[in-house]
């Protein structure tokens, strides 16, 4: 039993190492470019998202909300979102409304009080899952192209894809700086309860301190990047309409996209129909 | 192709001109190496050619620069980028897009070229990256990343390609690859290539002409062979001619070679020049294996990394290794053979999935890295990551202060002095020069007086003069820390410093022994992709009995015995 407990705690600690976080973030950003969702046209997906991000707020209909929730849950599975993101989603939804649910039960609430809470939870969950599907299932580059098509400034879309380009490098560097602190610093002893708290405070402090060297290193790098962007004609492209047209020429609506839309529309229509019949 | 007349350039705020009165002509199809001391204006000269100066970097410029018949002052950067491509020394920062093809064609797209994808693909093919189009840039190795940066420049189809220290960060196999690609671009596609290069071996092998820059002034431009034979002049500028040339020079000085002959610069030329010399074995290095206390051991260790996609990547499988007190070990092997992983295992940063890692006979699985840091200290490959404070002094003191080491102030002062950092102590570590940064990171590494010191690529990214300096520092340090492990590609460092060499390949130790055992074993050399120093290859070609690792040893073995005053054994 003791051994099992130790093994379990070791496992959890191991899971939350920097390395694991890095792996999850990368997986989320790049690891799922071959899923059904990732292959869809970003413009279609953005329209789809708009619907599921806005409409649920205005509806109190349980059937419609449940149907929407089921649909986005399926798309989230299809997008093969990384485990960490789903875990954070779970915590997020619970922190928003789930605890209210428990509290109301505790103070003698009944189905009457639970129902509105359930509605709210469903709304939040649907919107969150739709966001996760689009922003984490879609390749950042395609996402930024889609945004550009809808008239978002070039600078925004470049920033998105550049951020994703830099992410692995920054994560690795951050990890190294953090290790420097850990190896050379001296963490408080964590065997007592107070020690554990002190240790936690120490860890948080180290993470905050690590941003300073990271920023300086990044600033040093950017000297070359700025020159390289100039040579690669970044400034020309920003003012040239022709370039924008060329960039977006790669976007194409295929049958798969239409099928995806059709299935979504059909499903929601079915829900509405069932609702009126009931 | 390039015509520079009376060019003088001063950076804003600088007192002295960085380039003064430069006159230069480069013909179409040339393969030119620019050499010179640190800070002599090599990079500035290249930025003048591609128009970053004066269009992007302001400053005071007089004289004229014409590239392909066009005055750089009268064209914009876009126009010039299509005439002269540039690859930076820190090339990874030049890559701005997430996928390979995307980055290669990015410039073409920005300049609104309709066929940008074809151009990108063509450039990738010319740079030997076809098949990798859809990969993410961080999946590439260092050498491939460099080729991608090159492809990004090639895609615009410029006539001139300029590369700033292309192979400084690469292992020999990747370095060869880069130069082969450059040679092909030069010979098959008629590009004019200009490299800033410290590795004179590569200049001898690949370049046609050499330009020596000294204090912002062109000293001369000569054919490569002739240029490299000017040993004294090059040495005065901190440039080390190829080992073959140095050896011939030394032998001429000792009178073993007729001094009228031109000095050879490649192994092939050397073979002809040294043909008639007779070999006499030098005092052989007695190799005694340390029998001291066991400091660290790996028992049947297996490690794999999580991959972003697909199966975890196996780094070690059933690795076994023992490290004894007082050993000076070099860990060699190609990129990705697990050198850094081995070191991380010893510091406790990484846990083995299977097997045991022992430090001083204690298993370290349940020990925190913090607790081990007095026994083991690791100096990263990238010294910037070692600096967490805003001054060198604070960085060195940090670990001692945190642990309340008695008289840490005094120890910090002594360390600053020992590594010649006293004058730099208030500067930020990141803003130091490459060599100073390395010295500072070494000082940080030994601040806690560890029993085992681990150095990951201590001579990477340094020019040769600085590398020598770091090698001297490492040799000095032999007395301070007893047990030292260095992971490195730098075979000169291995030959001159290590007493035991461990070769990693495919997750195992494939060879372990003295330098004669490792470098003398062709199978191991080929399997692990190790290339001995050129002088060793030269000696072996002349006679299989010759094990010469330095120019000195070579001259001793092949020179006349009475002249160097050493008794023959």
Structure description:
The complex is a heterodimer of chains A (278) and B (569). By secondary structure, chain A is an all-alpha fold. Chain A is flat and about 65 Å long. Chain A contains 12 helices and no strands. In chain A, 82% of the residues lie in helices and 0% in strands. In chain A, helix 2 (18-30) runs antiparallel to helix 8 (154-184), helix 3 packs antiparallel against helix 6 (111-137) and helix 4 (62-78) runs antiparallel to helix 12 (255-277). By secondary structure, chain B is an alpha/beta fold. Chain B folds into 3 domains: 2-239, P-loop containing nucleotide triphosphate hydrolases (Rossmann fold); 242-287 and 531-569, no CATH class; 326-350 and 368-513, 3-Layer(aba) Sandwich (Rossmann fold). In chain B, helix 11 packs across helix 23, helix 12 crosses helix 22 (534-542) and helix 17 runs parallel beside helix 18. Mean pLDDT of chain B is 86; it is low at 561-569. Chain B is built from 23 helices and 20 strands. The radius of gyration of chain B is 25 Å and the shape is globular. Chains A and B meet through helix 2, helix 8, helix 9, helix 10 and helix 11 of A and helix 3, helix 4 and helix 15 of B.
């Amino acid at each position: 039993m003791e051994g099992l407990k130790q093994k379990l705690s070791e496992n959890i600690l191991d899971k939350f190492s920097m390395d694991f976080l890095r792996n999850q973030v990368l997986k989320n950003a790049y690891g799922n470019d071959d899923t059904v969702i990732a292959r869809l046209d970003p413009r279609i997906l953005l329209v789809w998202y708009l619907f599921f991000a806005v409409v649920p707020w205005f509806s109190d209909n349980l059937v419609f909300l449940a149907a929407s929730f089921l649909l986005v849950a399926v798309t989230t599975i299809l997008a093969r979102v990384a485990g960490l993101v789903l875990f954070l989603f779970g915590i997020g939804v619970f922190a928003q409304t789930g605890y209210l649910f428990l509290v109301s039960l505790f103070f003698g609430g009944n189905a009457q009080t639970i129902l509105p809470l359930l509605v709210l939870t469903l709304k939040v969950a649907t919107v969150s899952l739709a966001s996760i599907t689009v922003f984490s299932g879609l390749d950042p580059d395609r996402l930024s192209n889609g945004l550009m098509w809808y008239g978002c400034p070039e600078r925004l879309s470049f920033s998105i894809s550049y951020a994703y380009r830099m992410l692995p490098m920054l994560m690795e560097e951050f990890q190294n700086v953090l290790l420097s602190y850990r190896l050379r610093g001296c963490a408080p002893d964590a065997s007592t309860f107070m020690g554990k708290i002190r240790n936690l405070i120490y860890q948080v402090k180290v993470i905050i301190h690590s941003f300073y060297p990271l920023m300086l290193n990044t600033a040093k790098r950017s000297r070359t990047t700025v020159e390289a962007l100039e040579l690669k004609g970044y400034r020309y492209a920003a003012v040239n309409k022709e370039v924008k047209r060329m960039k977006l020429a790669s976007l194409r609506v295929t049958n798969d996209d239409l099928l995806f839309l059709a299935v979504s529309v059909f499903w929601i229509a079915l829900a509405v129909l069932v609702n009126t019949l009931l | 192709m390039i015509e520079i007349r009376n060019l003088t350039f001063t950076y804003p705020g600088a007192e002295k001109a960085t380039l003064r009165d430069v006159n230069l002509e480069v013909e179409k199809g040339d393969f030119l190496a620019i050499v010179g001391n640190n800070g002599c204006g090599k990079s500035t000269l290249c930025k003048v050619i591609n128009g970053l100066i004066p269009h992007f970097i302001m400053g005071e410029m007089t004289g004229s620069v014409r590239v392909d018949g066009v005055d750089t002052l009268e064209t914009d950067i876009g126009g010039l980028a299509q005439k002269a491509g540039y690859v930076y020394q820190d090339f990874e920062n030049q890559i701005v897009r997430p996928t390979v093809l995307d980055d290669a064609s990015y410039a073409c797209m920005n300049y609104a070229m309709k066929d940008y994808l074809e151009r990108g693909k063509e450039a990738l093919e010319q740079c030997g990256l076809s098949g990798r189009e859809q990969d993410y840039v961080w999946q590439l190795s260092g050498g491939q990343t460099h080729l991608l940066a090159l492809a990004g420049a090639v895609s615009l189809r410029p006539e001139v390609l300029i590369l700033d220290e292309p192979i400084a960060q690469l292992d020999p196999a990747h370095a060869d690859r880069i130069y082969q690609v450059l040679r092909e671009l030069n010979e098959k596609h008629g590009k004019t290539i200009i490299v800033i290069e410290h590795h004179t071996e590569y200049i001898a092998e690949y370049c046609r002409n050499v330009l020596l820059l000294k204090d912002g002034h062109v000293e001369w431009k000569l054919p490569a062979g002739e240029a490299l034979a000017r040993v004294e002049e090059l040495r005065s500028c901190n440039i080390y001619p190829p080992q073959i040339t140095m050896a011939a020079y030394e032998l001429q000085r000792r009178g073993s070679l007729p001094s009228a002959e031109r000095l050879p610069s490649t192994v092939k030329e050397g073979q002809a020049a040294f043909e008639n010399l007779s070999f006499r074995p030098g005092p052989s290095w007695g190799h005694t294996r340390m029998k001291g206390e066991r400091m660290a051991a790996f028992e049947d260790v297996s490690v794999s990394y999580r991959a972003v996609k697909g199966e975890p990547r196996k780094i070690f499988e059933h690795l076994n290794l023992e490290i004894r007190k007082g050993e000076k070990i070099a860990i060699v092997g190609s990129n990705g053979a697990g050198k850094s992983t081995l070191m991380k295992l010893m510091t406790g940063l990484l846990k083995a999935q299977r097997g045991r890692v022992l430090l001083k006979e204690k298993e370290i699985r349940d020990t925190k890295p913090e607790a081990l840091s007095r026994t083991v200290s690791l100096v990263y490959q990238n010294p910037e990551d070692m600096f967490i404070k805003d001054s060198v002094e604070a960085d060195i003191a940090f670990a001692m202060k945190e642990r309340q080491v008695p008289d840490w102030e005094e120890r910090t002062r002594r360390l600053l002095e020992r590594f010649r950092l006293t004058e730099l102590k208030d500067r930020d570590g990141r803003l130091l020069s490459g060599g100073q940064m390395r010295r500072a990171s070494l000082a940080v590494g030994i601040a806690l007086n560890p029993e085992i010191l681990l150095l990951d690529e201590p001579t990477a990214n340094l020019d040769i003069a600085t590398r020598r300096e770091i090698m001297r520092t490492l040799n000095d340090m032999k007395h301070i820390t007893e047990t030292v492990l260095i992971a490195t590609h730098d075979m000169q460092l291995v030959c001159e410093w290590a007493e035991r060499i461990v070769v990693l390949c495919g997750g195992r130790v494939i060879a372990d022994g003295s330098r004669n055992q490792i470098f003398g074993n062709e199978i191991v050399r080929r399997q692990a992709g190790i290339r001995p120093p050129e002088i060793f290859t030269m000696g072996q070609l002349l006679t299989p009995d010759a094990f010469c690792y330095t120019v000195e040893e070579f001259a001793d073995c092949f020179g006349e015995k009475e002249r160097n005053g050493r008794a023959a054994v």
